[in-house]
Amino acid sequence: MKKPGRAIIEQERIKHMKTNGQGGFSLIELLIVVVIVGIVAALAVPSFQRGIRAAENGTAFATLRTISSSQVGYFSQNSRFARLSELNNASNQVFGVTAGDRVIRGRYVFEMTPSNPTDAELRDSFTITATRSVSDDTVYKYELTHTGEIQQILP
Predict the structure, then answer these.
(1) Which residues, other chains included, contact 155 with Cβ-Cβ below 8 Å and sequence gap of 6+?
(2) With contact defined as beta carbons under 8 Å apart, do 64 and 142 qualify?
(3) What's the CA gap between 64 and 58, in Å, rounded?
(4) What is the pLDDT of residues 12-35, one digit of tens each?
(5) Is the per-residue pLDDT at 4 higher than 60?
(6) Is cis: bond before 155, omega within 30 of 0?
């Protein structure tokens, strides 16, 4: 006895689906799925953005901590603290890209106050700020002083 071919089996399966009313998904069912996916995405995207912002803030804080320890080493060798560009160049650009008196790392801009301190000012102290502007007018700002203390200034 000969076995039925694949084509015949597939035709029987399709015929069985049509007689049982199993033709596939209706338009309403597909629209409901699309709406549910849209709601889940609307809830997930803001949480994802907050997570990214928190990670960037953590990276800026860690960079300031590394700058602080590098400043201590520079001070012990030179009897003064380093300008931010000097410190970045001595560290092979590890803190970011030097742009004039600033160092840019990711979405943060690191600056000294005053922007170009004298050697005499650097014998006593330094202040470095890390600033990030977010698209919704929120500004994040951290400050590092010669004491090694890092404070969140904004928001």
Answers:
(1) 138, 139, 140
(2) yes
(3) 10
(4) 776 766 565 556 888 999 999 999
(5) no
(6) yes
| Cα–Cα distance measured from residue 90 to residue 81, given in angstroms and rounded to the nearest whole number | 13
Q: Which DSSP category does 147 fall into?
A: T
C-alpha 34/C-alpha 14 separation (Å) is 27
Cα–Cα–Cα angle for 104, 109, 110, rounded to 5 degrees: 95
DSSP state of 82: P
Angstrom CA distances, 97 to 75, 108, 126, 127, stand at 22, 11, 20, 19
Read off the pTM. 0.75
Q: Determine the Cα–Cα distance for residues 64 and 108; give it in Å rounded to an integer.
A: 11
Secondary element (H or E) of residue 72:
helix 27-78
**DSSP string over 88-110:** HHHTTTTT-EEETTEEEETTEEE
Rounded Cα gap, residues 125 and 129, in angstroms: 14
Contact 89, 98 (CB under 8 A): yes
